[in-house]
Amino acid sequence: MGYLEQFAQRTFAEETERITGGAAGWQDPPEIRLEKVQADGYLVIHSPGPLQHLTAPWPQAQPHAEVMLELKLPANHLDRKEMERALLRRQARQVQRLDDQDASWLGEEPLWLVAPHLPDWLKQMRAPVCFAPGCYWIEPQWHRFLWIAANELPLVDELIPFLLARSGQALDDFGRWVAPRRPFEWVLPMLD
After folding, report:
1. Predicted TM-score (pTM) of this structure
2. Strand order of the sheet with strand 145-149?
3. Which H or E element spans position 130?
4. Which of 49, 53, 66, 92 has CA 20 to 30 A from 3's CA?
């Protein structure tokens, strides 16, 4: 860290309480330990055109080179901590892309979070905007991401990877629907 940065931090530490009349104060930051920061996967977009004609959420991937995917299956937690961890992984990927590609990249890493349903706490906290069955934009814009509620998605072949996140009756319905469409070798592990 440079001298000027240290000087600025020391000035904040010495002056903040006096300037604000005790309304605010400086605190040295704790170390933020980042353990393994790895997304569940990425969708790499090779040819965006054909995505336009598929069922949502697929068309939303068209403007991007990649989409970060986070899977929250029925046994996973759907609390705020898990959402914040997904957002942190996205932020880490954005920095990684700037390091790996170049600083001229002006994009924002798209994040799709796939889960059985949209939790009530998220509805209250962020006011999701539904644009297609089971597809919700979660705002605000600078932290925008796509929540895919698998239980609400239509049963169509092109959505099978997303439909695996279903739970309860919706999962049972999916199992009955998908069994005749897929080979036995695929259906058996899915049922397990």
Report:
1. 0.84
2. 41-44, 66-71, 111-115, 145-149, 135-138, 129-132
3. strand 129-132
4. 92
